[in-house]
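Researcher: Next sequence.
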Amino acid sequence: MRTKRKLVQALSALVLAAPAAVSAAAPAHAVGPALLPVTITNNTGRGEAVHLYVIGINLATNRLGYVTKSGAFNPWPAGHIPPSPAPDVSIAGPGNGGATTVQFPRGFSGRVYFSLGEKLKFFLTPDGLVQPAPWAAGDPNRNILFDWSEFTYNDAGLWLNSSQVDMFAVPHAVTVTGANGVTAKTGEPVSNGRNAVINAIKAQPAWANTVYTRPDGTVLRVLAPGKAAQAGLMDANYLDPYIAWAWNAYATRTLTVVPFADQPNTRYFGRTSGSVMTFTNSAGQRVASFTKPSTASVWGCDGDLPAPNDLVVGPISRTLCAALNRGTLGTIDTQPSTNAAQFYQNSPTNQYAKIIHQHMADGRAYAFAFDDVGAFESLVHHGDPRTAGLILTPFGAGGPSPAPPPGAVAVVSDWHGKCIDVPSGTFVDGAPLQAWTCNGSGAQKWTFTGGTLQAGGKCMDVAGGSTANGAAVQLYTCNGTGAQQFVLSAAGDLVNPQANKCVDIKDWNSGDGARLQLWECAGTANQKWHKG
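Model: Next structure:
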């Protein structure tokens, strides 16, 4: 089980201080580069300017500061009381369809913020950085569309997660590619996932006020229940009936906590007396006790559920908090439960976490502080990273679709064995098709239907209906035009009959990411394909 990696905050709930340490990891066989390239890709479909910020702590010096685009760490200047404006450390981000690369210096832990349309406002006190807190009355960032991911990059590798612990605002995925060339990705909503989450939350009577809409009609965010309750937007005692029932269940039964998946014989046993649950170890020694938690303690995984970074109390507390958020405490007597089908069946339940997980392409999210219990969090990690990425995903339709239909196949290059691929599995109009190492993902599964090639419910298409050499081959909403007709001949030519030209790997580029284009059919290896 990982330790809680949320940034620890001091002075007030708004001030950035040192993040909690990432759980101990086995020494890596290799160490990542001193500067790790991290590419932020904008697939939102929106036209606003994007502003980026890389802020956190230098792990070697324990100093708080920010990182420039080139990866240089700079400590913050001294702050004041009342808080003084921080210098503008924004990095110009990518426009829609573009990408910007920043560098993470090894030995740094913090957040990457991204705002759309307006720069964020940070402030400094003598103790740290006052972060945006749009759930707080009067916060100057309240009407800005923004979000963040959290990371630690050190000699043991990179940990990077998309976070919904405080709010769900700008949908985004995180990726890491290791020295072995394998890329991991998580955190991406399904097609139209942002709208689906917002609408599903609004449909819950006790939760509708947690959705915040700017005066111009832009839905900016859904607040996590703890933040919404603090702001008076939902019942502060919402979970109390369930908590009381679950807690009292162990007055007559024993709760068994097995906090470490790799240590099945490390077990703790809990029984409730009055409002206190006491845990003993296998030798019968008392090791921890917890007072029945409030709703606020469950939302925050703190307060009555303190979780120190030790090997006993913290792991038990994290397990309890996850079980209460997921609604499995009182029903399943050995925790943690790792059967997601059993989560969120209680009433009342954590609708925020339930709905967000339901609308993630891989089911993973960081919807509360210890959503990593049982490894359900949206985290990528590699001990020897070479690149990483943040993908700002579509706000509306677009993005991963359901599993490919039966009969979907890869289309493979005879030349080097790579597959026709939709970049980052993002099924948006205009996505340029590419050749990529075959990985069996839905981004590489195509159906031959009515003379078209379809993936993610969209069609292979010639940009602008062009018939010229060099015309880009892309993904686009199926529209029945000649630009979307393709025939794979017995000779291995993938031909667009309208142009009478072949799908060609541009410039004989043998690397991953090589673009596809139309070109006069020449019978060359970079124009030969087969079904995989």
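Model: Helices lie at 193-202, 225-230, 240-248, 295-300, 313-326, 351-358. The longest strand covers residues 145-154.
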